[in-house]
Amino acid sequence: MQTDLLQEARRQAEICNACRYCEGYCSVFPALHAERAFSDGDLTQLANLCHNCRGCYYACQYTAPHEFDLNLPQALADVRQDSWEDLAFPQAAGRAFQKNGVLIALATVVGFALLFWAARSLASQGGEGFYAVLSHNAMVAIFLPAFLFPLVSIGISLRRYWRHVGAQPLKPAHLAQAFRQAANMKNLKGGHGDGCNFEDEDRFTHARRAVHQAVMYGFLLCFASTSVATVMHYALHMPAPYGLLSLPKILGLSGGLLLVAGCFEMIRLKLRSDRNLGASGAFGGEIAFIGLLGFVGLSGLVLYALGQTALMPPLLALHLGAVLAFFLLTPFTKMAHGFYRLAALAADAQR
């Protein structure tokens, strides 16, 4: 990891530890105040506990023009971003995609191109619905490796993280506490429960917490839709296509709507926020990935609406191409922060 980023975060953490004005604002400060000296692993853990709500920055009396020049949200964001790149597997992919929106866009285009090629070369003969364009076996052959690779990659990365921060063997109670905090976005409620001032110094709001929940639960509903359809296909011998009131469609539609609305609002909030309080140089990569995730949801909804028309084949290729790019890029983009955040909360539960 970059020594200069860690040194600056250490300097600021030591000042915050002496001041303690922000005690109780979020999970970062109890963990910070429990230490007297900060190893590289301690700083990485603090950085991944931080949700970048920025309340501590606006409350701080030592920000510029004070000579201490504290900007803890940015210092921790830089360490956090660097940790995702350094701990990624393979590391080169993490460094390429984390901050580079152009590479994310190119990877998406490649994903689209592969699906268009697959639709032409592996076209189904006599299948119904989507399987008339791409057979079920072809879809499995394409997406099973694309689903398993991110799981392996993230698993290796989290193992590296756990060792780096010096966490103890994981207990179910600690993991359960981490899931509870992640489910209700506890650390985005703000120090006094009024929300965070991510958009504006003087405006406290729960908007950022709400859009994070919309994206998270929208994604989980879409994943549940695919999982239910898989069970119906293999265990119940009920292959697609499914009706509008079927469980896969209900889960997928509600998840897609939440995903699109959450991603759109998240981009709007980021555009209104102060970029100097986030990770240096990561803004383009974050916007590109949120846009990709939103496009996955939007293309799915359009496919639902126009799935019985002549536009279905190209729409299917676009949607599956976006899904393919999303899965392959998950370990190396902003999406990885959810896994690291959960690991950080579980490690913090041991404290």
From TrEMBL:
Keywords: Membrane, Transmembrane, Transmembrane helix. Coiled coil: none annotated. The chain crosses the membrane at residues 101-119, 139-158, 214-236, 242-267, 287-306, 312-332. NCBIfam families: CitB. This is 4Fe-4S ferredoxin, iron-sulfur binding protein. It comes from Sagittula stellata (strain ATCC 700073 / DSM 11524 / E-37).
